[in-house]
Amino acid sequence: MGFLELFNSIKETTFVLAITAFALITTRLALKWLNMNFYFSKLKIPGPRPLPILGNFYDVIKRGLPYNDLALIKKYGRTIGYFEGTTPVVLTADSKFIKSILIKDFKTFANRKLIGAANIAPFNKFVSLMKDDEWKSVRAILSTMFTSGKLKSMSKLMNECVNQTIEHFQKIADNDEVFDSKKYFGGLSLNVICSCCLGIGVDSIKEPDMEFLKHIKKFFFDEGSVDVRLVLITLFPKFIEFVAKSGLMPMDSLDYLRNLNLQIIERRKQKLEHRDDFIQIMLEHEEQVNTNEISANEESDIKWNEKYLRKALSPEEIFSQSMMFLLAGYETTANTLSFIAYNLARHPEVQNKLIEEVEDVLANHNGDVNYDSVNDMKYMNMVIDETLRIFPTAVRLDRIASENYEFEGMKIVKDQQIIVPIWAIHHDPEKIDSNTYLPFGIGPRNCLGMRFALLNIKLCIAKVLTRFQFETCDQTLKTIEIDSSGLGRSKEPVYLKIKNRF
Ligand code: HEM
Questions:
Q1: Residue owning the nearest CA to atom 32 of ligand 1
Q2: What is the ipTM of this complex?
Q3: What molecular function does GO assign, one term (predicted)?
Q4: Which domains does the chain have, with CATH numbers?
């Protein structure tokens, strides 16, 4: 065979192979799409028709995540089946169904979607990603950090951070400047978590170039918000190993933070330093385990505490939880504070009423803004609750069904992911009730840091209002649009003014 004939024959074979591969892939995609079209109708769950490959993802891109959730509920009813790519997802805003998933039939819905997929430290030991018995044990141990006594001790560390923020606000007020609220409340949120959960006092606004902060920002935050790579890992957990090994994640920063954390733990173990923070509480817990002095935490909603408390966290596990607190607590708290300030600036009558309450309550507490005084502020609770209704900083929560399940004729298959669209439910005012007001979730797997976050928020707002008031300015947004990150954050910066009250 001559060279030309050989070349032509190879060309023909390649062409035939390409056509066959194309036909096979197209047939597979067509079959998959056909299945997707009938998938939810067979399970008696209503929902929109999916597109091939994209599923119903195009609508999320077009409308934005929270707005699409609301549109789905309005069009198809309280429980909907739809596709994220080719993955079937059930979304429910039904109060009764939500109560069953999060509380009544918790045993079937104890875990979240990402579980087991993240194999790399420190993600593999995050309590938020753990499953079943391992989760129960770590959750029980961690909940010892959030009792009234421990929070009271930690409130002193929080107040130190609030005082730093007050100093920054003083300069802004004296110079009559406009400020980016996320920057300053983000700074406070970061300082509080570093101080209370990582054992290091910092002022991230005053000293942004501190080495420790540089590593935190390099690994976790992208221009003041949680890094998009971390969101990708959360959305596509199977990529985590690839992302880590490809150099896309600055693992040197993670190593720096780990070494620092392990050194702090070691120094504490040797009693060279003491702080009323998370690390100290975990080490005290270890001592109690060793001396067999464990007792159930009466304030916890988890009934199995005593049995699961009979273990101590290893230094590596303590480090994992510190990192997770940073991820779970930084953005949520920063955005909530920023939205409270925005709401107060836009509603001066509410701000005045809150200032009145702060002054009245503090008059009975020797002027001290502390754990006890802020807990006496009832109107403060209402302001926070309403802000978290309008701007829930976790847009959705999710669970996985560990077995087949039925709800009012709808069939939920084993391993099905169920999403509760918090933002959408909160913006459907007729339907909101105690099972559907969910800024922190409900049931045994609700937000572990809720009491910590609320204390931090109250201490900050109360102290700020003793000296200043928030005001709008020309750059203040008339309405806030939420982005699609799932972190409930504003698409645009929230600019405000802060004025001296006296
Ligand atoms: C305003 C601030 C915050 C909001 C709105 C918020 C909201 C939430 C929500 C909605 C969940 C999911 C609950 C569920 O699935 O039922 C959650 C989980 C969680 N949050 Fe928060 N959070 C906040 C602050 C914090 C802080 C400061 C920390 C830590 C110090 C924290 C730690 C956690 C953890 C560990 C989980 C997972 C719990 C588990 O799986 O057992 N959160 N949070």
A1: 449
A2: 0.99
A3: oxidoreductase activity, acting on paired donors, with incorporation or reduction of molecular oxygen
A4: 1-111+396-438 (3.30.43.20)
